[in-house]
Backbone:
């Protein structure tokens, strides 16, 4: 391997102690004390590697190693050090610390690069404390206004900007778009494809587009006893049939198409009352914008059809979404040839989850590297991975970064 | 008419001012201050009619008019003065005050009866403050232990017995089964059958049996993006298909069979997470115990079938129920002939909702009289009825009571 696996693992394990939970995960909510400790630890390591650290207005951290053409847009690599509540040790940290290991490796071997190299730790990738997710990279790419990010509030009413200042990470550098020579991000897959197929590395060529809908169905509240079945307008029955119909839609479109109903609420929610008001979410994702449009049409048709059967009123609202993001072919090629140099099995794939790479892709050639995680689990303390997979991912990142830094 | 409609209406309107809501309903939760006021008003009227008032340990109120054979089991009529939160003006009050009007009519006309006549106001018919419902009649019939009724607590932790004493209605009379000569209860239908068929009076020959189940389905929590459809164990999809299947079961059994899913909850209830834990209730009712058994089998089969498709674990719990109660043929006949004497259109029916008459039927010949309510609505401020329907119901009750008191 190009990299030093033991050193990499040591850093990963030290980082995993910051905000460690009893269940083996980490609790490093954005701008919490644990987030500050993780940042301080990373800053110390960057300093130890001779890197110049720059912190921008969003708290995004860029640790820079000079290049031979130091004004050229940098070859970037990174991810995030924040976590969801009781999240895993590898989600995010893996990408930041693999980039650190890659730079340490360049230092060890006295390798100079044409472009400068920057390791980035994006602020608030996860988003559960301060929605939306991918906030730091979103502001950096010009997709989220700095002002609205600053005003985001957590459940206790604390403002993002106040918490950013409290932990001492409101930097001076402007958080505005600048040219990026390349961006590579190593991440656990957070899904079961690689682990179930026994493939060592995923060459990620894009990020799925996503649509979030909120469907409301309204019927009539009635006593569950004396109201004959044929006179009912049962909002829950209409919603249940719609959800059953939505489950069949992905199979009509593409093997990788996914659709999920995750939120559900009803009123009055009493054992002997026919529900008159149901609201549920629909989340659907794919790489092909035409199929996303087709799915939306099929979901709307199913909702109307089932509402009509039960004589319900409906409302369908858009509550979020993003278009599919195809990554740069050259960046993906660099990752693929890094796999081949080392003899790692690999496959092309798209990410169905959002990542900072989605925003980075707006500024320069971008690709991601996925490595298998146990049972495809993430966002919980159950998240785990094989260290050999982590080393391979780090090795591919280092090789890919070197290629992009010299391109 | 045998009765005095104006006097009856005046009492109904005065009672409706006790705990009146802005929306035209009443708020007389069991053992609240409004319940006490309603009881005091009724006690004053009973006194004015020369009746002897007896209050039992449960607060059930019996206002007695002597009979020629005063030791014979009494001909009873009544219902309840408590209400659900923001309930209607007719639900319960109609049956108590129609019985009062019937007795006032006997007084007016100096009619003596063989049996004594007792007007009853049952404590806590509704049950939302202190579950279960029909508590006063349930203890009276020996179906609910007095001790467990006394220990029932409301949402604020107040005990039934303490609230009963606070409002001054913990009586001395034992609340234990005693022979009942007959029991008649006038009530709004709380369903749309009479109003939609244009029938004036329902001769109620029994109360549906009821089964309450709680179904839990457990799958696997996963990220809504990277988890392919074929690898999911989505508890909400399993539940939705089961609920859609349950909706089809009544039609296979009987036109009057009803089944309802009213309660529903899921976890984690997040827009981008596949739900791993869903719980829902099933309420199903009919007059035929064989069909109730058949329905249970079909519901269990549907649950197992849909759980298997999504590879879910399931649990089905019994959380309540009652067997069908067929009323006495003679009591129903008395109601029917009362309708015919006055030329009111009528039909036989069963009640799909529970009533105190269910417990009274254990102690003596019982029947109910239903009258139409607007759109079949109850348990809300929308509840309403045509006064002419109320007068007809009161008239039938008075005639039926007279027949039973002389039987």
Residues:
């Amino acid at each position: 391997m190009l990299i030093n696996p033991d050193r990499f693992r040591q850093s990963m394990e030290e980082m995993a102690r910051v905000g460690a939970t009893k269940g083996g995960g980490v609790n490093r909510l954005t701008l919490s004390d644990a987030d500050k400790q993780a940042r301080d630890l990373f800053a110390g390591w960057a300093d130890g590697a001779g890197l110049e650290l720059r912190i921008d207005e969003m708290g995004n951290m860029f640790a820079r190693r000079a290049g031979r053409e130091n004004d050229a847009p940098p070859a970037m690599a990174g991810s995030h050090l924040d976590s969801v509540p009781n999240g895993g040790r590898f989600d995010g940290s893996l990408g930041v610390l693999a980039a650190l290991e890659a730079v340490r490796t360049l230092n060890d071997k006295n390798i100079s690069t044409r472009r400068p190299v920057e390791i980035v730790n994006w602020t608030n990738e996860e988003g559960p404390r301060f929605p939306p997710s991918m906030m730091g990279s979103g502001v950096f790419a010009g997709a989220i206004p700095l002002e609205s990010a600053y005003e985001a509030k957590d459940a206790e009413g604390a403002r993002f900007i106040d918490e950013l200042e409290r932990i001492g990470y409101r930097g001076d550098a402007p958080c505005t778009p600048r040219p990026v020579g390349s961006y590579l991000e190593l991440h656990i897959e957070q899904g079961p494809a690689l682990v179930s197929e026994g493939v060592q590395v995923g060459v990620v060529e894009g990020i799925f587009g996503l649509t979030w809908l909120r469907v409301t169905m309204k019927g009539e509240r009635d006593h569950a006893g004396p109201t004959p079945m044929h006179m009912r307008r049962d909002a829950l029955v209409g919603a249940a049939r719609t959800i059953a119909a939505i489950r069949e839609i992905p199979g009509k479109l593409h093997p990788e198409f996914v659709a999920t109903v995750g939120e559900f609420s009803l009123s009055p929610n009493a054992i002997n009352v026919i529900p008159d008001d149901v609201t549920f979410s629909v989340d659907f994702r794919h790489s092909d914008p035409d199929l996303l449009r087709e799915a939306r049409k099929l979901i709307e048709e199913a909702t109307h059809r089932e509402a009509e059967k039960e004589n319900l009123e409906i409302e369908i609202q858009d509550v979020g979404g993003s278009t599919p993001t195809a990554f740069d072919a050259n960046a993906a090629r660099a990752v693929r040839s890094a796999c081949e140099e080392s003899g790692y099995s690999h496959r092309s794939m798209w990410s169905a989850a959002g990542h900072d790479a989605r925003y980075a892709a707006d500024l320069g050639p971008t690709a991601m590297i996925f490595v298998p995680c146990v049972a495809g689990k993430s966002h919980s303390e159950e998240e785990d991975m094989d260290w050999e997979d982590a080393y391979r991912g780090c090795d591919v990142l280092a090789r890919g970064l070197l290629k992009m830094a010299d391109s």
About this structure: Chain B touches chain A through 62 residues (CB under 8 Å). Residues 201 and 346 of chain B are 5 Å apart (CA to CA). The first strand of chain B starts at residue 52 and ends at 55. Chain B has a mean pLDDT of 97.
